[in-house]
């Protein structure tokens, strides 16, 4: 039975219209890296487990602990009114609508505003990765107030993140999408840093330390390499933004 099992109920009453940062794996693993960093840097509480349709039925174990967990989990930080959707595995896009539907009533009950994260494949350069924001009706003024740039080309967001954004548009519910230039082949901690500092921070008003993210970039790349290879093998299933071109 599809459900979200919340076992930190004491936090529910402390959350006031929280922001949810989605961290499904995609291009450059920017969403995954950013979400993992938020959970770690704020020592977020394991708030609940996600048993929605479309989530693969696998069990995850962590280094140094015998406890098993489902692959998709929710973390909460009541002090910052922040939630993180963390996933240790890719979600197939055809399953993402089931996931979005399953999350919908919970999002509505808590008056959650989601921020969905996506990389757009760009070859690595010496410049700072560009970031821009998109959103459904009702949040566009907040993108402008946060100083987040507009898209510089026509494009689409595919994979599970695109499916969940599509669901928000269809339902008429508020949702942000942050898109950052990312390495198409390897985990990209620098792109994750940009999406945190130039996207998540101004939208939430939360200052996020990123020194560890920068200092540990090589270690992060190595730790995420196997997942990145899985994403490359299933490229058409990955969350990613890509240009459409004028005459697509």
UniProtKB/TrEMBL annotation:
Domain of life: Archaea
Pfam family, any one: PAC2
Disordered: annotated span: 226-248
Keywords: Proteasome
One of the record's GO cellular component terms: proteasome complex
InterPro entries hit by this protein: Proteasome_assmbl_chaperone_2, PSMG2_sf
Protein name: Proteasome assembly chaperone family protein
Species this chain originates from: Haloferax marinum
Native organism taxonomy: Archaea, Methanobacteriati, Methanobacteriota, Stenosarchaea group, Halobacteria
């Amino acid at each position: 039975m599809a459900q979200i099992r919340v076992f930190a109920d004491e936090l529910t009453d402390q959350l006031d219209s929280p922001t949810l940062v989605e961290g499904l794996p995609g291009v450059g693993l920017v969403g995954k890296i950013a979400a993992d960093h938020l959970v770690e840097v704020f020592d977020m509480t394991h708030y609940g487990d996600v048993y929605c349709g479309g989530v693969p039925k696998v069990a995850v174990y962590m280094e140094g602990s015998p406890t098993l967990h489902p692959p998709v989990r929710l973390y909460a930080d009541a002090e910052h009114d922040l939630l993180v959707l963390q996933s240790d595995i890719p979600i197939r896009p055809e399953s993402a609508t089931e996931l979005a539907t399953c999350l919908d009533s919970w999002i509505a009950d808590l008056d959650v505003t989601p921020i969905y994260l996506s990389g757009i494949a760009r070859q690595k350069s010496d410049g700072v990765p560009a970031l821009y924001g998109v959103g459904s009706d009702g949040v566009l003024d907040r993108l402008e107030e946060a100083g987040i740039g507009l898209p510089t080309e026509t494009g689409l967001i595919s994979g599970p993140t695109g499916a969940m954004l599509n669901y928000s548009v269809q339902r008429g519910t508020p949702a942000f999408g942050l898109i950052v230039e990312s390495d198409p082949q390897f985990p990209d901690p620098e792109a994750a840093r940009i999406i945190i500092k130039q996207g998540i921070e101004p939208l939430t008003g939360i200052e996020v330390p990123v020194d560890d993210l920068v200092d540990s970039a090589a270690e992060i790349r190595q730790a995420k390499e196997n997942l990145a290879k899985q994403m490359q093998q299933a490229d058409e299933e990955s969350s990613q933004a890509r240009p459409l071109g004028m005459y697509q």
